[in-house]
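Query structure, 150 tokens:
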């Protein structure tokens, strides 16, 4: 069994409620709290897919706009944490001025616990077209050993 603390559907429902209150009250209902709409103030929780085989887990996370140098993956037993931050490339020519900007820095953070511990030495990560693929081999379990009582 694989448990993720927050499902994508509940996250979408939370965003719907945020929009409802924002539209009804003309702005952020919870003033003083960081925004969670991906405007750079709070890390986004990337969508993930998990596939399990007999020997390993394959995890895919969507993190568009991130370079592989900016991704950090930490494995502690069965706990996996992924974080990344995209950079804004400011190529400003002399005499240019920004009229309007919607693109911002994006940061991503996601942690999850797998049913079995991961063999850290055999783990691998690859970032291709904004999708981070983690190959996480399961740690070999040692069979229970019976001992005789003397």
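Result returned for the query:
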């Amino acid at each position: 069994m694989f448990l993720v603390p927050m499902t994508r559907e509940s996250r979408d429902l939370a965003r719907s409620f945020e929009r409802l209150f924002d539209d009804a009250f003309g702005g952020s209902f919870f003033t003083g709290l960081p925004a969670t709409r991906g405007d750079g103030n709070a890390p986004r929780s990337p969508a993930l897919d998990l596939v399990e085989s007999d020997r390993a887990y394959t995890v895919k996370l969507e993190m568009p706009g991130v370079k592989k140098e900016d991704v950090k993956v930490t494995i502690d037993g069965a706990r996996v944490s992924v974080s990344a931050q995209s950079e804004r490339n400011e190529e400003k020519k002399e005499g240019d001025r920004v009229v309007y900007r919607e693109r911002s820095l994006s940061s991503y953070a996601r942690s999850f616990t797998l049913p079995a511990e991961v063999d850290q030495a055999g783990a691998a990560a690859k970032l291709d077209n904004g999708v981070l693929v983690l190959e996480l081999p399961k740690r070999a379990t040692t069979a229970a050993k019976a001992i005789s009582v003397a």
